[in-house]
Amino acid sequence: MSAVDDAFHGLRQMISSGRLVAEQKFPPESELCDELGVSRGSLREAVRMLSALGVIESRHGSGTYVSQLRAEDIIGSLSLTVGLLPLSGLLDMYELRRVLEAHAAAQAAARITDEAEAEMLGLIAQMEATDDTDLASSCDARFHEAIAHAGGNPTLMALLGVFRSRSRAYQVFELPNGAELKRISDLGHRAIADAIVARDPAAASAAAAAHVAQTDAWLRLYQPPLSEK
Amino acid sequence: MSAVDDAFHGLRQMISSGRLVAEQKFPPESELCDELGVSRGSLREAVRMLSALGVIESRHGSGTYVSQLRAEDIIGSLSLTVGLLPLSGLLDMYELRRVLEAHAAAQAAARITDEAEAEMLGLIAQMEATDDTDLASSCDARFHEAIAHAGGNPTLMALLGVFRSRSRAYQVFELPNGAELKRISDLGHRAIADAIVARDPAAASAAAAAHVAQTDAWLRLYQPPLSEK
DNA sequence: TGCCGAAAAGTCATCTAACAACTTTGTTGA
DNA sequence: TCAACAAAGTTGTTAGATGACTTTTCGGCA
């Protein structure tokens, strides 16, 4: 086994064995090097790997710590990379997004609070009123986030955030017929919101699935330009 | 911005900009250091991060390459870390697993081939016949894998694999009443298989959801021991 | 000519040593 | 008691040298 792998598994085991729990501080690098039998360079490479995966966290001048170990943080680490997937491999993800958005919408319909509902309605009103594509995109994202949040499952919310971060890069509304598409999209949003307001999970689920399927179809059909961001 | 971050974003951008595509080789480390303006140590830390995330791949003596950039590989990188999540943060994941297994089972019922069906039935027969908990666990995993595979969405299959890798660490069948639990579990599997054989997506979906919910309930109730693996 | 093996070049892997940058702790002095 | 400063501790970065593995090149031989 290579030195970096040794260090990686050693660090990982310190957490899985329960020797270190969430938020706790690792020994300094020099001690870890002795214990794991690798040089500082190799150890640091292993630390970076776990840090990229959202498991640990280095603070300059202070130390290296176990993260909070929340599922949503670990899933969120995917957002660093989903943007690199080619469009071809993306359609499977849309199938997942459709299923998960439908579930989140259904849960939201069952659980949403009055304040969250008011926020959601405010976003959708703003979205319908504007012609600015940037503002519309932003409201779109926040609208879906609000629903996922109301669903009450942070892990699901993180996963949907990852999928959406990829979809958002495709600027459907910038297409020649973008205004027409936005109008249809607004109708889809409104159907979801109405179902949630009516506290009807089945209707919310169906509306959300239809909305995602629609976006998916546009993506396949027009293959819109990628945003620079 | 720190040196490692510079290198990380530089490498990432080489891919997102299209300068390098899947399977293509990066320039040697020395050139990358010059171009990105960082030392070799920092560059290597950035490379390790992207490699942990499944985006690039270093081959000793040969070079550093962009990965195949398949969604399933990038999602699969989570399996390195989900095992570290505390049990408390795991129940949200079971909700997701329930939804996704249900979808996969429905898709399998709609799409499965005769050969895949035969394999699935072989696994379930073997599982029902044995008392060996290790063999049963292995068949259990492969049974669910076969269904996910038959569902035809590699991304979904990878995601379910991640969730299952975590569940499998809990050895429900090792509990005092493990034999009883296994019998119930076998019935759940049989219900899923029957629905798939009958090409009935709705029934398959319901059976799969029920099965996952059952496992979830056992986990909450008994909090079984973690495997050492 | 064609092929095989050895040598050479190219590349990543690892280690050591040193210094820089930042944070935390301890101490001093008013 | 508190503020400012000093010291110690820790991670961040760089440089150079050596090892290990892969690929290419080239010479020898049938």
Report strand % of chain A. under 5%
Number of helices of chain A: 10
Radius of gyration of chain A: 22 Å
Detail the poorly predicted runs of chain A. Answer: none
Pfam family, one (chains A, B): FCD
InterPro entries (chains A, B): GntR_C (IPR011711), TF_FadR/GntR_C (IPR008920), Tscrpt_reg_HTH_GntR (IPR000524), WH-like_DNA-bd_sf (IPR036388), WH_DNA-bd_sf (IPR036390)
Protein name (chains A, B): HTH gntR-type domain-containing protein
Domain HTH gntR-type (chains A, B): 1-69
Overview of this structure, please?
Chains A, B: Keywords: DNA-binding, Transcription, Transcription regulation. Chains A, B: InterPro entries: GntR_C, TF_FadR/GntR_C, Tscrpt_reg_HTH_GntR, WH-like_DNA-bd_sf, WH_DNA-bd_sf. Chains A, B: This is HTH gntR-type domain-containing protein. The structure is a homodimer of 229-residue chains. Chain A is elongated and about 65 Å long. Chain A has a two-stranded antiparallel ribbon. With 229 residues, chain A is mainly α. The mean pLDDT of chain A is 93. Chain A contains ten helices and two strands; from the N terminus they run αααββααααααα. Chain A folds into two domains: 3-69, Winged helix-like DNA-binding domain superfamily/Winged helix DNA-binding domain (Arc Repressor Mutant, subunit A, Orthogonal Bundle); 74-222, Four Helix Bundle (Hemerythrin (Met), subunit A) (Up-down Bundle). In chain A, strand 1 and strand 2 form a beta hairpin. Helices cover 67% and strands 3% of the residues of chain A. The longest helix of chain A has 22 residues, at 201-222. The first copy, chain A, has helices at residues 3-16, 29-36, 40-52, 71-76, 91-111, 114-129, 133-151, 154-167, 178-197, 201-222, and strands at 56-59, 63-66. The interface between A and B is large, with 45 and 45 residues. Chain A binds a DNA duplex (30 and 30 nucleotides) through helix 3.
